[in-house]
């Protein structure tokens, strides 16, 4: 079983590594967008999928990261990829400050507050807060990223950057999922009272989930800013948060392959239906309703963890 | 002082529209624990249907402005109520037993669907309501001139809210709605047909939303396919502010939000107008996590 998994992993990596060689730049760019949204989806997955917190304002963390990168890069000319940790930190800090007083709110109250935070951030960006964000035009002229002396310009070069970042994300989030921390989050999602009764500091863990998700979204924001070289408040609206949210739920909340599949469908499929033009979003909305009715738990839901008994028989499933 | 009073009446008029929309959110939430994100699109649809009927039937010319608009409101409310019930049947009813997050995605999908349907039918441009439907007179009171339309909106909304309050509190059907909101299982045991209650909620809520859409059209004179989302979000904020699921709370929250927003836009900053509502919401929720009139719900043990 383990071998099959390894072989499948090697084949998938191989395909992903050579894929852009066979596509034109337009489709490579679509793949890049899918990659960016997949990583954003994975970061939201920690909050929504694993912890069961209702966050419809994830684009605000993404925005904080992207604007941190843009401001520091254009004002102080710091190479944009060096700023990845800074962007993560600033988004994490923002999440910590914002979420600290509201983390105890029940599900739907939390939902509206995260939407509100998203709106406040967007309006603040439009109003050129502190004179740094460039108002509704946004910030332009962000440097191209430089990796080992090579400047990334074409979609294909970005493809490998995003692929590498995605691989690191998947590896780390997988570790996180199976860690004590990840188990605590799942416990919290399933039954908060029981989790509290077992000595899990619920407020602490919820806050930690928010911050981890936000840190990651902030780092994706950096890559997004580097890729676009122009960012404006239009890219961080409520609907952006909705798309990330839909990726998580549609793909299968709590499941890494599910979220990636969700990103492929939500970002990739509309590209295939470009001919429908205006009716595209109509179909998209109807598909969301239909998907939820016929596959409520998402396409690839989180599978229950398997544990082998300490001295019991192994049933050949392997497990961790 | 005059500016203050003008803004107060403006805030109350807008706030009463928020309150009408908020009632739709809060009633659905009370019974189903579902945020009906598509409600804002029903408001938009109400505004557009109002415009279509107004221009095609020329009600205001035939029956005089007040009676014409009143009849128009009744027609819009009836139509939107039907759309609301259909929405429930198609998008929400199959998901009654599903996890709540799935129902939310379905609601968001329905919202996107409806919004784009409206755009495809009516186009993406702003449409104007005819200027001359309601007489452009002002009424002199407490030292200021208040436009008639403001007073009408406020009076009609208060009448509707009063009617709803009476209906929910005093009639047998209203009692059934309240019972289903408190405990669906127990309501079923005492012989309440919960499915009918849900249907009723999806008739009444959207009807109020449709009326609110018509009022938005009459008040601002311009409508757009994406307008519902902004008003819907404010109204939902109002519902949360008052304590979601709580009908008087939605009314209070709506009026409060309208006034706070009007004052904020005048005395603090117009550019930050849309952010003020959310700032107030966050501040109030930090102090009172279940809203102004929301009761503390016992956590399950």
Describe it for me?
The complex is a heterodimer of chains A (320) and B (301). Chain A contains twelve helices and four strands. Chain A has helices at residues 2-18, 25-50, 58-76, 84-99, 107-126, 155-177, 180-190, 192-197, 202-228, 238-251, 256-272, 279-294, and strands spanning 139-140, 146-147, 150-151, 230-231. In chain A, the strands form two sheets. In chain A, strands 1-4 form a two-stranded antiparallel ribbon. In chain A, helix 2 packs across helix 11, helix 3 runs parallel beside helix 5 (107-126) and helix 4 (84-99) packs across helix 9 (202-228). Chain A is globular. The mean pLDDT of chain A is 88. Chain B has 301 residues and is mainly alpha-helical. In chain B, 75% of the residues lie in helices and 4% in strands. Chain B has helices at residues 2-32, 39-57, 59-63, 65-92, 100-122, 148-170, 172-182, 184-189, 194-220, 227-242, 247-268, 273-287; strands at 127-128, 138-141, 144-147, 222-223. In chain B, the strands form two sheets. In chain B, strands 1-4 form a two-stranded antiparallel ribbon. In chain B, strand 2 (138-141) and strand 3 (144-147) form a beta hairpin. Chain B is globular. The mean pLDDT of chain B is 88. The interface between A and B is large, with 46 and 52 residues.
